[in-house]
Structure to design on (242 residues):
């Protein structure tokens, strides 16, 4: 089992203990240097750790952070400035009021999710009512012309966030995307192939490693692609690959 886990980590799987191990810090530094982005969206911003990492990587453009949990949002909101814009909503493929579930006593958890069944020990679960909106509608309402990087960490709801951005994706308004796949995808019934089919016509996909990216050029080995464990996937528009 230990050898298997070591091999998985070489594929970018289960590297979750730090931003260095996930590869997020390396990716952000590279992305900021190579593409000089001006707009980053952080969907599932929680308390703002990723936003702070963006700033520490040299990004000084506009950040739009989305955190639906009311209590967590109060912590995030304290980071507001004229280039950091925060919204107490979540993003998905439909709009309305929904329940966000988390363990009792852990209402600022990074593991709050729309999928109750993904939380162990159902007797220890509480929830908050949150508002969801589609990314397409938000972009229209706020007249966002272009997103350089869309980061999505929504505990199993990542595919629905992308489906809610269908018009923006088709209009090529989003240069690069970072999203998570975790064990919650078993509960949400989302496969890697769902992401691949949606994004691969326009984007080149990569699995994020601590200091590099592992290209995923085609869907031909489900054994190595349908792995329901923590991993980060990067998608970059083919016309912008350097």
């Amino acid at each position: 089992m230990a050898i298997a886990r070591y091999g998985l980590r070489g594929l970018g799987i289960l590297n979750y203990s730090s931003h260095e191990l996930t590869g997020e810090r390396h990716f952000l530094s590279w992305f900021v240097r190579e593409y000089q982005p001006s707009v980053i969206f952080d969907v599932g911003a929680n308390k703002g750790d990723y936003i702070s990492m963006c700033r520490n990587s040299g990004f000084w453009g506009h950040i739009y952070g989305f955190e639906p949990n009311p209590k967590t949002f109060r912590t995030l909101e304290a980071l507001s400035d004229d280039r950091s814009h925060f919204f107490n909503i979540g993003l998905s493929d439909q709009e309305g009021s929904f329940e966000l579930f988390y363990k009792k006593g852990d209402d600022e958890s990074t593991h709050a999710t729309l999928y109750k069944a993904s939380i162990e020990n159902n007797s220890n679960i509480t929830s908050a009512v949150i508002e969801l909106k589609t990314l397409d509608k938000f972009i229209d309402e706020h007249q966002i012309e272009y997103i350089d990087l869309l980061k999505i960490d929504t505990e199993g709801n990542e595919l629905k966030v992308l489906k809610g951005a269908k018009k923006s994706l088709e209009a090529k308004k989003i240069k690069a995307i970072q999203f998570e796949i975790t064990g919650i995808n078993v509960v949400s019934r989302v496969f890697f192939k769902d992401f691949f089919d949606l994004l691969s016509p326009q984007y080149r996909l990569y699995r994020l490693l601590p200091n590099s990216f592992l290209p995923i050029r085609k869907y031909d080995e489900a054994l190595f692609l349908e792995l329901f464990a923590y991993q980060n996937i990067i998608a970059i528009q083919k016309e912008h690959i350097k």
About this structure: The radius of gyration is 17 Å. The mean pLDDT is 92.
